[in-house]
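FORM 7B: Structural annotation worksheet

SECTION A. Query
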Amino acid sequence: MSDGRGEAAGDRAPADAEGWFARMRGPDASQWADDLDAWRASDPENDAAYARLQLRWDQSAFLTNTALGRGRDLRRAAIWSGRPAVRYAVIAVSLLLVAAIGVLTMGQLGSPGTPAAIHEYASNDRAVRTVTLADGARVTLDAGAAIAVTDAETGLRVRLIKGRVRFHVARGGAGLVVAAPNGTLVAGEGQFDVAQDDRFVRVVAWREDVVLSGPDGGTTRIASGQQAVFDPTYGVSSLGRAEPGELGWTRGMLSFDRVRLAAAIAAINRYNSRQIEFPDREIGEFRITGAFRVSDPDGFARAVADMFSLPLIKRPSGTIVLTAAKKA
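SECTION B. Predicted structure
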């Protein structure tokens, strides 16, 4: 590691992290574990630099499913396999290569040359679905969501195809890397949501921190209880407190805290064939607070009608219409 002369700690962190990362992949890794923890805890820059290398290393797993990865000549490994010093140096250089090709590998995840995923999972347009992956991770797909799961040298990797998904990953394991359609990578354990909305990706860390990485290699650590929205053009566009009400969507509940009624109705309609409509735009600007079962549009509509003294009409088609009260 660096001796620190003539350099700020933040400037040394990336180089020191490469040294630590190479050392922890050597035969004596266990004896350095405590020292590594102390180094990471001594400065946030150290911890962030090491986390970035871990993420880049996980990204390299995707390379095995590309033409570049399949073209590796493993016979050359014999040249350095018995020489630890050379092996550490090669690993350190490899990390730089992984960072350089990170965008390339992510861009190829959905390309025609990529081998088919082991499994694809999707929920229907009106219901939530939960599945358990081969490594024990539990995945809950919101209505209309879909993922693809591929096998990699370091374990299962997930690609978010569309929608919102919650991941429950055992703590203390290898974690899970999730790739979003715009090239974003999310790596974490514990419980976290990843949602694709148009070109944006929203990540919510419910339990344990997660790391969000953009196509340019920049990373953001999202603390437990926080959320971030990633824009591929502008990077992380917002980072703030997660909304506690969003925890309940996996249980069929939606909670609102002074949310525009138009947005609340749209959220309920996503889960039901019987739709709620409001012809008067002014109604959509009302603010609503409360928890509601997504499978009960009638109950939601009745509650809204009582709350704002709105007439309620049920059409023969089953559509529920909230109308403006007649002015005296």
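SECTION C. Observations
Helices lie at 9-23, 29-42, 44-63, 67-70, 84-107, 261-269, 281-284, 297-308. Residues 252-322 form a domain with the Phage tail protein beta-alpha-beta fold fold (CATH 3.55.50.30).

SECTION D. Sign-off
Analyst initials: ____
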